[in-house]
Design brief:
This protein is an alpha/beta fold and 296 residues long. The chain has 13 helices and eight strands. It has a single domain, classed as Alpha-Beta Barrel (TIM Barrel). Strands 1-2-3-4-5-6-7-8 form an eight-stranded parallel barrel, surrounded by five helices. Helix 3 links the parallel strand 3 and strand 4. The termini are far apart. The relative contact order is 0.14. Belongs to the DapA family. This is 4-hydroxy-tetrahydrodipicolinate synthase.
Length: 296
C-alpha cells in the first residue's frame, strides 16, 4: 500500500483555549483553527496531550471535536486523540464516538501502570481491531514512563489498521532503526519539534507539532523544506526555534505555547489545574524570543 499522504508534513497539536471561568473558549478556538489553517498546516490534531486532554471532560472532548469539524473550512484531515491506560475504557470510548469527519485516531502508550512490551502490543491490537478509522501510535516516554521499543513498533506496524507513529522519545538511534525496519507505507512522525529536520533526514515523514499552534507558517515551511531536500533552509528555521523549544516546556506543556498565543492575541494563556499559567518571567522570555526572531 502507498503511504497515506494525508498525514505527511505538519499536524498542529491544537491547544484547548479556556476563558476566565475556565470553560472552553470557542471563539478563541475558532481563531486558533483559522490561524493554523491559514498558516498552511497539513492536518489538525484534536485532543492530544497539548489539548490538555487529562483535564477535559468526555463531553467537552466531543464538543471540541464537533466544533473543529464544523470550522474546518479547508477540510483538512483530522486526527482525534483516543487513548488511555485502561484498554476496556478506550474501547468503550471508541464504541461511543461518532467518527464522522475523523480521519484517524492518535492513541498514547498506556501510562502509569507500566505494561510489558507484549502488553503494549495487546493493548494497541485491541484498539486497532475496534477502531473504524486508522490508528496512529503515540510514544512519549517522558509522560508515560515506558518507551515503546523498536521491536514493539515494528510488530504493531504489521497490523493493517495501524498506519504510523508519533514518536517523542528523543532517540535518534531508535528513529533511524524504525526508518530502516518499518514498512515503506508506515508513517513516521516526530513528536519533538526540535528534531524535525534531523528525523526527516533519515526518512521520517513530518511532525505533530506544538510550535505550529502559534507559528504555523514558519514551522510548515521548515518541515517542507526538509521533506523536499532543502536542508540548509530547514536548518536555518530549526535553529531559530531552538530557544523556543526549550522555553515552551520549562513550566510544562501547553503552558508556554498558550502564552505565545496570548501574546499574538489569539486566546488567553489560562490552563486548568494542576497546571498553572505562565509566570511573568517565562512570558517575558517568550516575548523577547519572538521579537528577536521576527515572529511578532
Amino acid at each position: 500500500m502507498p503511504l497515506d499522504s494525508r498525514f505527511k508534513g505538519v499536524g498542529a497539536a491544537l491547544i484547548t483555549p479556556f476563558d476566565e471561568k475556565n470553560e472552553i473558549d470557542y471563539p478563541g478556538l475558532k481563531k486558533l483553527i483559522d490561524l493554523v489553517t491559514d498558516g498552511g498546516v497539513d492536518y489538525l490534531v484534536v485532543q492530544g496531550t497539548t489539548g490538555e486532554s487529562p483535564t477535559v471532560t468526555s463531553k467537552e472532548k466531543k464538543d471540541i471535536l464537533a466544533f473543529t469539524i464544523k470550522n474546518n473550512t479547508k477540510s483538512l484531515p483530522i486526527v482525534y486523540g483516543v487513548g488511555g491506560n485502561d484498554t476496556r475504557a478506550v474501547l468503550e470510548t471508541i464504541s461511543n464516538t461518532d467518527f464522522s469527519g475523523v480521519d484517524a485516531i492518535l492513541s498514547v502508550c498506556p501510562y502509569y501502570n507500566k505494561p510489558s512490551q507484549d502488553g503494549i502490543i495487546a493493548h494497541f491490537t485491541a484498539i486497532a481491531d475496534a477502531s473504524p478509522v486508522p490508528v496512529l501510535l503515540y510514544n512519549v516516554p517522558g509522560r508515560t514512563v515506558i518507551n515503546m521499543k523498536a521491536d514493539t513498533i515494528v510488530a504493531l506496524s504489521a497490523h493493517p489498521n495501524i498506519i504510523g507513529i508519533k514518536d517523542a522519545g528523543g532517540s535518534i538511534e531508535q528513529s533511524m532503526e524504525l526508518a530502516a525496519r518499518v514498512p515503506e507505507d508506515f508513517i513516521l512522525l516526530s513528536g519533538d519539534d526540535n528534531l524535525v529536520t534531523t528525523m526527516v533526514s533519515v526518512g521520517w515523514h513530518g511532525v505533530i507539532s506544538v510550535i505550529a499552534n502559534a507559528f504555523p507558517r514558519e514551522f510548515t515551511d521548515l518541515t517542507w523544506h526538509a521533506l523536499e531536500g532543502r536542508f540548509p533552509e530547514a536548518a536555518k528555521l530549526q535553529l531559530a526555534f531552538l530557544e523556543f523549544d526549550t522555553l515552551l516546556y520549562i513550566e510544562s506543556n501547553p503552558v508556554g505555547i498558550k502564552k505565545c498565543l496570548e501574546i499574538k492575541g489569539i486566546c488567553s494563556s489560562d490552563v486548568r489545574l494542576p497546571l498553572l499559567k505562565a509566570t511573568d518571567k517565562l512570558g517575558a522570555q517568550l516575548e523577547n524570543a519572538m521579537k528577536r526572531e521576527g515572529f511578532i
